[in-house]
C-alpha cells in the first residue's frame, strides 16, 4: 500500500499564532524513527487496554506484532479499532503523534519476510524473526501475529511552539 497524501489541517484553537501545519512527510519520518509506540485496544467489556510495544513503519502503515494469546491479540479478535501513539515525554519540546485506524493481520509470507527484515534492521539481532505459516516465529517467544495499521486519522502535537495538525485519509 503506497503512502497516500492526506488532507492536512492546522487546528488554530490549539496552535500558537505563528504555527503552521506539519507536512505528512515529516510525520512519517518521525513514525519511522520512533523506537517505542503505545497501542490502545478495546477489551471485550469496552474498557481500554494500553501497552507499549515496538514496531516499524512500512508501506504506508505502522506494523506491530504480538503473541496470539496476549491481551491485545484477544482484543483485536473482537474489535480491530486501535490508536498508536509515540513522541516525547516532555512539555515544552518535541512532537507527539497519534495514529487512529484498524489493525489488520499480515499473513503473506513475502510481506512477513520484508517486515521481519525491517524489525531486525531497526532494532538489531535481538529482534530477529523467522517466518512461519502466516506468523513471525522466534525461538525465545514462539509465534507472533503481525498487524498493520494504515492511518485513518492522525494528529501531530508540536511543543515549544504549540501546534496541532490533523491528517485525514480517504
Automatic annotation (TrEMBL):
Q: Which GO terms describe its cellular component?
A: cytosol
Query: What's in the keyword line of the UniProt record?
Result: Oxidoreductase
Q: Name one GO molecular function term.
A: oxidoreductase activity, acting on the CH-CH group of donors
What residues does the Pyridoxamine 5'-phosphate oxidase N-terminal domain cover? 27-154
Query: Do you know which Pfam families this protein is assigned to?
Result: PNPOx_N
Task: Determine the domain of life of the protein's source.
Answer: Bacteria
Name of this chain's protein: Pyridoxamine 5'-phosphate oxidase
Amino acid at each position: 500500500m503506497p503512502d497516500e497524501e492526506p488532507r492536512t489541517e492546522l487546528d488554530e484553537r490549539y496552535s500558537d499564532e505563528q504555527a503552521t501545519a506539519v507536512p505528512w512527510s515529516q510525520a512519517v519520518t518521525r513514525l519511522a524513527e520512533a523506537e517505542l509506540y503505545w497501542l490502545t485496544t478495546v477489551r471485550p467489556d469496552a474498557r481500554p487496554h494500553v501497552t507499549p510495544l515496538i514496531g516499524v513503519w512500512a508501506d504506508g502503515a505502522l506494523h506491530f506484532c504480538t503473541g496470539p494469546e496476549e491481551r491485545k491479540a484477544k482484543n483485536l479478535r473482537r474489535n480491530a479499532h486501535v490508536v498508536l501513539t509515540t513522541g516525547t515525554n516532555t512539555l515544552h519540546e518535541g512532537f507527539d503523534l497519534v495514529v487512529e485506524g484498524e489493525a489488520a493481520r499480515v499473513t503473506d509470507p513475502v510481506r512477513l519476510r520484508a517486515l521481519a527484515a525491517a524489525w531486525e534492521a531497526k532494532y538489531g539481532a535481538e529482534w530477529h524473526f523467522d517466518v512461519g505459516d502466516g506468523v513471525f516465529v522466534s525461538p525465545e517467544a514462539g509465534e507472533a501475529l503481525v498487524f498493520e495499521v494504515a492511518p485513518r486519522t492522525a494528529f501531530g502535537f508540536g511543543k515549544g511552539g504549540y501546534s496541532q495538525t490533523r491528517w485525514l485519509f480517504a
